[in-house]
Write a structure and sequence with these properties.
With about 150 residues, the chain is an all-alpha fold. It has 6 helices and no strands.
Length: about 150
């Protein structure tokens, strides 16, 4: 992958992760208010805690490019039910329906960006790529060592 594509993926990962990280940390910072709001929508505290963990951990994974596909999966698992429960525009009228439609479509677009990262991978500027290069170097060194041993034995 060329440097421009890797830089674009890094910028994309940053943009996608920031919204989840800020939102998740905001939930933790005002936990009681978050619990009250979620409870009003029928979301139990244990489910809210799990969703918040998915949100924050998935965002950190995506941002660092570490276990990126797992992080994206966590964010998609968070995003789909949140979008359906909290931005159900079909249940509203007038201005509120319009606002919830925009929020629903925003989340739908974010989901599209997450799927693009899932398909493309994190790019060269990521922990995953760095670890992959390290593993490839280890295999190369091991193969060279085997080759040297075989030459000596021949």
């Amino acid at each position: 992958m060329d440097r421009k594509s890797s830089a674009a993926l890094l910028a994309g990962r940053f943009g996608l992760s920031v919204i989840f990280l800020v939102s998740g940390l905001g939930k933790l910072a005002s936990w009681n208010g978050t619990v009250a709001y979620a409870s009003a929508k029928g979301v139990p505290v244990i489910l809210l805690a799990g969703a918040t963990a998915l949100e924050v951990l998935g965002a950190l994974s995506l941002l660092a490019g570490w276990k990126t596909r797992w992080g994206v999966a966590a964010l998609v698992a968070f995003l789909v039910p949140v979008t359906l429960v909290f931005h159900n525009f079909w249940a509203y009228q007038g201005a509120e329906a319009q606002l919830q439609t925009v929020q629903f479509l925003k989340n739908f677009s974010i989901g599209g960006g997450l799927l693009a990262v899932l398909g493309a991978g994190p790019g060269a500027f990521s922990v995953d790529a760095r670890r992959s290069r390290g593993a490839a170097e280890s295999v190369t060194h091991a193969a060279e060592a085997v080759g040297r041993t075989t030459e000596k034995g021949a």
